[in-house]
Amino acid sequence: MSQTFTLDGKTIPFEEGQTIIQAAGAAGVYIPHLCYHPEFKPHGSCKLCTVKVNGRHTASCTMRASAGMVVESETEEINAERRALTQMLFVEGNHFCPSCEKSGNCQLQATAYHLNMMSPHYDHFFPNRAVDASHPEVLLDFNRCILCSLCVRASRDVDGKNVFALSGRGIKTHLIVNAKSGQLGDTDFTLDDKAAHVCPVGVILKKRQGFAVPIGERTYDKAPISETAETTEGR
Amino acid sequence: MTAKKKLKVATTSLAGCFGCHMSFLDIDERLFTLLEHIEFDRSPLTDIKHCSPDCDIGLIEGGLCNAENVHVLREFRKNCKILIAVGACAINGGLPAQRNHLPLTTILEEVYHTSPGLANGMIPNDPELPLPLDQVHPIHEVVKVDYFMPGCPPSADAIWKVLTDLLAGREPELGHGLMHYD
Amino acid sequence: MNEMHAEAVAGVVDRVVARHRRDASNMVQILREIQETCDWISPEAIDRLQEVLGVPRTKIEGVAGFYAFFYTEPRGQYRVLFSDNITDRMLGSKALMDRLCNNLWVERGKVSEDGLVSVAQTACTGMCDQGPAMLVNNYAIAGLTAERIDQIAELIRGKVPLAEWPPEYFKVADNIRRADILLASDMKPGDALRAARARTPSDGLHSSNMRSWREGLPSGIGGPAAMLDEMKRANLRGRGGAGFTTALKWEACRNAHLKAGHQRIVVCNADEGEPGTFKDRVLLATFPDLVFEGMTVAAYAVGATKGFVYLRGEYRYLLDHLNAVLAHRRREKLLGPDILGIPGADFDIEVHVGAGAYVCGEESALIESLEGKRGTPRNRPPFPVTNGYLDQPTIVNNVETFAAAALIALNGGEWYARIGTQQSAGTKILSVSGDCARPGIYEYPFGVSIRQVLEDCGATDTQAVQVSGPSGVCVAENEFDRIIGFEDIPTAGAFTVFDRSRDMFQVARNYVHFFQHESCGFCTPCRVGTSLLRNLMDKLHHGAGSPYDFAEIEKLNQLLQSMSHCGLGHTACNPVLDTIAKFRPYYDKRMMQQDFTPAFDLDRALGAARQMTGRDDAAAHLATENGGKA
Q: Are the CB atoms for C274 and C361 separated by under 8 Å?
């Protein structure tokens, strides 16, 4: 007999140990998320997946489902909060979509579309961030980093390489690579690494491959992120 | 028969490429329908130089890159009941804002003094020229903006959707397919 | 010192790592000790550390980059940090910092040209009753005057080693103004432990089972359970600010499932980072036995065998003293193996020093730091009582909570519960500072009114009191009859007094800058939100505020309260909202009479262009103008 909880009135079955977002995903229900990826341990930092559990705000990627939980996700209040978080991410970095290689396949952009983000609302930080083109095959453009640490987790837990990590504190938190020079080209990173393919935004990019897919045929042109299986089954 | 009063619409391109204006004109024949409800005030389309004090809608393309942009924006805000930021540049600074990580002094030095092939360089300082801001800013960082039409440019259909929503008194909404930042 | 040869650096690293048993979970201590000898954490040090510890370089750099006190670039042989709490400013810290910078030819925030010294600011160092204060290489110097600054400049210029500076510079006073059960306690070391043991029925005393000290009888009666019962009777709630019922925390830890090879852990939270709080400093300086006794009583009650004191980096000067007291307790069989001669009664305590991160006062972030990692709070559940230090059942309690626990063990829970109020048992130590004649330490039974404290500390013409620091409450004059207690105004201890000469907007702004600096950066709302809030406050400071900005602050508050990962984000907007509500005129006078003002100073934004073109005509300037209806 499987246990259940309710999500926006809908009954969702779950297995012992599953988090709310995992159970929801298995039932085909989309909860906006950025740092969550079904193949990795949850991080809990982006806060986009926040829902209300029995009236209290909680990250659905880290909260285990329990029988009888009453979860709200698709409410105007919560979506307005998610939109505000997305706007914060947009003003924190330099997210210029028109010239970004990831546009159309970008989770941050697609999530912003889903949340009806018409403007960034806040005042831009315009930080001075680096581009690392030292690796023969992969480009790192830190302007777009949202600190989801998927690359950190993938490199550590799947590739066994520890190429990426976070350093700094607060608003100065940033991604670093495992080399004395600080350059990706001096690490043992390769294009075959899982970490080369998990970035939800346009930071870790395969070189010489930008804009290969025409507008209209990119992942999120074809379907909104709420319907795209990739986001729940992994990339 | 009394004709319903037409809404006055003013438009401008600040630090924009006019692509949003071109996209607007891509509404093609729908322009005729639109003109039954609106008339253009200050706009590159009419060449009227200044806003009437009772404009209903101001469409702003482009962000703020120099002092003149700020003056024009302020005139629009003062004279238009509703201000709409049209396109990436007005909404987040857009392409011109890609210079923001460089100090303005460095940029001016390179462009007017040290760029290869330059001779007798000097930074233009004629009082008629508007001075550039140290960073390019979106318009909502200087005036209150009422609505936003994202895109680079927003498609004609997206522009049409927002305008018709507003004219019908609805909250503008773009769905999948019309909502783009690129 | 900055020019250490790579070999010498490697030698230092090897020794430090060996002393820490090559255990990477001691990373924070290892980095601290390397820096204490080498003045910074150089790339060569990281090279060697990577080799001998066998951890990725990114692990080392990531940790070093998190803590404010760790430097991966040279910061001089003398690293001076001025405490920048609002109380320091009220006492003239800025002028003294400028004086030192002028004296030493160094710019604030930078390293001197000859690499000798750097001068910068740091968050409240816990010397508010004797400020202004500074840290020199993390050693505290309080009660600064112009004369003292000049003397210090001399010593630095003369490259006199810190150990040879006059000891009176480093004197820190206790300033105990009102003592009660804790501060007047004359309990002798061991008394509480013996009393706790005495409460067990005889069956529990002589079990041959090595675990008798820890587990008690299967039926749950006797042994440590009796101590837990006293704690329940006492109604003790945590003294660190959160106020969680201590007995429940201990019981949950005791009942938590213990995996093979694991042990239960007792952690004393001595991070005391909330600006205006300095009561734990005095407890540790003058009543360390009381605190350690309380920790040992806790270990007895929960069945723990290992303990830590997490001592904030700003209290580095207390480390040797605390270690000496611990060594003494070991000699007296009050710590270590077989405490009081009871076989199997093992418990020992290690002191770990922090490195300048307020967020490490949050219990799960503290545990991360103890594990040698970046101090970002964990996802909860699970909670530390079941999965804490290295995934073992752990209790984290405040210094004062442990001191109270010792007295409860000695005198019983009923005795304790009779003190204070119905809902708030016992006493609370307040650290009083700011505009008052007698700043210092005051211990009161719960239920004391704000007015009473103000009278006792000699405060006159008081405008406001910030209770429990920036994450607490700003109390206005019409509220001075409110009481200190969980049922009204709870507090970890900070009690900062502002008289009518103070600008309450600047107080709030100082606090907002603090939260922005201390945000750990893990979660979006706090990482970005505290910066947005800081920018808004700076905008108001420059006289460009508008009602639109007020509405924005209100919205940010709601967002941070709902979505933040930990208490820092939840409370970051408190100081602003309190002062807007209660001290609105300070904001009004800074607002432009406009609904919406630009986010940045437009005229200043033309400054670079004016400079490059040499223009200063009217068209080369922009005024701040109304940006429309909000």
A: yes
Q: Where are the domains of chain A?
A: 3-74, 83-209
Q: Given C56, C66, C564, which is nearest A169 (Cβ)? A: C66
In chain C, residues with a C-beta closer than 8 Å to the C-beta of A63 are: 381
B104 near C CB under 8 A: yes
Question: Does residue C115 sit in helix, strand or coil?
Answer: coil
- Please give, rounded to a whole number of angstroms, the shortest distance from the CA of A74 to a CA of chain B: 17
Confirm if C277 and C495 have CB atoms less than 8 A apart. Answer: no
What tokens appear for A106 in the block? 């970008």
Q: Which residue of C has its CA nearest to B141?
A: C599
| Strand extents, DSSP E, C23-106 | 78-83
Which of the following CATH numbers is that of domain C191-417: 3.30.1490.100, 3.40.50.1970, 3.40.50.11540, 2.40.110.10? 3.40.50.11540
Q: In this complex, do C620 and B131 lie within 8 Å of one another by their Cβ atoms?
A: yes
Interfacial B residues in 77-96 facing C (CB < 8 Å)? 77, 83
pLDDT tens digits along C187-199? 999 999 999 888 8
Local structure of B107: helix, strand or coil:
helix
CA distance C333 to C340: 6
Q: Between β-strands B80-86 and B147-149, what pairing exists: parallel, antiparallel or unpaired? A: parallel
**Cβ separation of A119 and B140 shorter than 8 Å?**
yes
Interface A–C counts its CB contacts (< 8 A) at 116
DSSP per-residue string spanning C433-501: EESSSS-EEEEEETT-BHHHHHHHTT--SEEEEEETSTTSEEEEGGGTT-BBSTTSB--SSEEEEEETT
Counting Cα atoms < 13 Å in the Cβ hemisphere of C173 gives 15
Strand order in the sheet with A50-53: A10-14, A3-7, A70-72, A50-53, A56-59
Query: To the nearest whole angstrom, how far is the Cα of B91 from the nearest Cα of chain C?
Result: 14
pLDDT digit string (tens) for A63-75? Answer: 999 999 999 999 9
Q: Which residues of B touch A116 (CB under 8 A)?
A: 173-174, 179
| pLDDT-based confidence at residue C216 (cuts at 50, 70, 90) | very low
Pick the CATH number of A83-209 from 2.40.440.10, 3.40.1700.10, 3.40.50.1820, 3.30.70.20: 3.30.70.20
Beta-carbon separation of B101 and A119 below 8 A: no
pLDDT-based confidence at residue C203 (cuts at 50, 70, 90): very low
Residue A139: CB atoms within 10 Å: 20
Q: What is the ipTM of this complex?
A: 0.97
Q: Any idea what the CATH number is for the domain that residue B87 is in?
A: 3.40.50.700
Domain range enclosing B94: 7-99+133-167
What is the dotted CATH code of the domain comprising C427-502? Answer: 3.10.20.600
Q: Indicate if the alpha-carbon torsion angle C155, C158, C163, C164 is positive or negative.
A: negative
